[in-house]
TrEMBL record, chains A, B:
<dbReference type="Pfam" id="PF03195">
    <property type="entry name" value="LOB"/>
</dbReference>
<comment type="similarity">
    <text>Belongs to the LOB domain-containing protein family.</text>
</comment>
<protein>
    <submittedName>
        <fullName>LOB domain-containing protein 25</fullName>
    </submittedName>
</protein>
<feature type="domain" description="LOB">
    <location>
        <begin position="12"/>
        <end position="113"/>
    </location>
</feature>
<dbReference type="InterPro" id="IPR004883">
    <property type="entry name" value="LOB"/>
</dbReference>
Length: 132, 132
């Protein structure tokens, strides 16, 4: 929990309770992760996952992992709002294609390297080619 | 829509309507994408996103993109059930690290290549190094 979100929390209801128009108590599971100065973060996860599913996930994970869980949910929600068809799975496809492209490029570069090594003769062991 | 899911749909309620215990009509937005022989697909997206959010997303996207939308939602839901903290954002982090590793490896291999080229003298133009 960042100190800024905590001080905000003590002054006013968290973004989740403000959005859901309910009293924000000291036991509020959302308060440490949805400070009042970031209303969009909660609005996004609520729109994509629903407050009750977010709360369920938060209760499923250990307290020290809840900030990471909220941030990954917020990332997924934002991606789905930007791209309703693919959401963040679109980023996975792009990255998978990039990994394949780099692996091919590396294989070709290693093949070039081996050709140079054989031109120089007998020095292959010094630059044996990098493994991708 | 696959022919198998359609034929299943005509015989029995889709997996969503079966799960939600409601009548599956010819207008059911879920039926083409949640055939009755894949009950887990709907159970997963319902558990993570909620049926109403999935329905909202399906209505937001064009009919020809709905199958992709459902499949990406099912992928995200399954990833979140396996890893409640990071969901499919975990896969994004792994892939981003792999891209960085391959880019570094490619840079180093290109540097080796340039060293070989300078040893052979004047042949740099033939293998000018690959761009990562």
């Amino acid at each position: 929990m960042s100190s800024s979100s905590y001080s905000n929390y003590t002054n006013s209801p968290c973004a989740a309770c403000k959005f859901l128009r309910r009293k924000c108590t000291s036991e509020c599971v959302f308060a440490p992760y949805f400070p009042p100065d970031e209303p969009l973060k909660f609005a996004n996860v609520h729109r994509i996952f629903g407050a009750s599913n977010v709360s369920k996930i938060l209760h499923e994970v250990a307290p020290h992992q809840r900030e990471d869980a909220v941030n990954s949910l917020a990332y997924e929600a934002e991606a789905r709002l930007k791209d309703p068809v693919y959401g963040c799975v679109g980023a996975i496809s792009v990255l998978q294609r990039e990994v394949l492209r780099l692996q091919r490029e590396l294989e070709e570069t290693n093949a070039d390297l081996m050709r140079y090594a054989s031109c120089l003769g007998g020095e292959t062991s010094a630059y044996g080619g990098r493994r991708g």
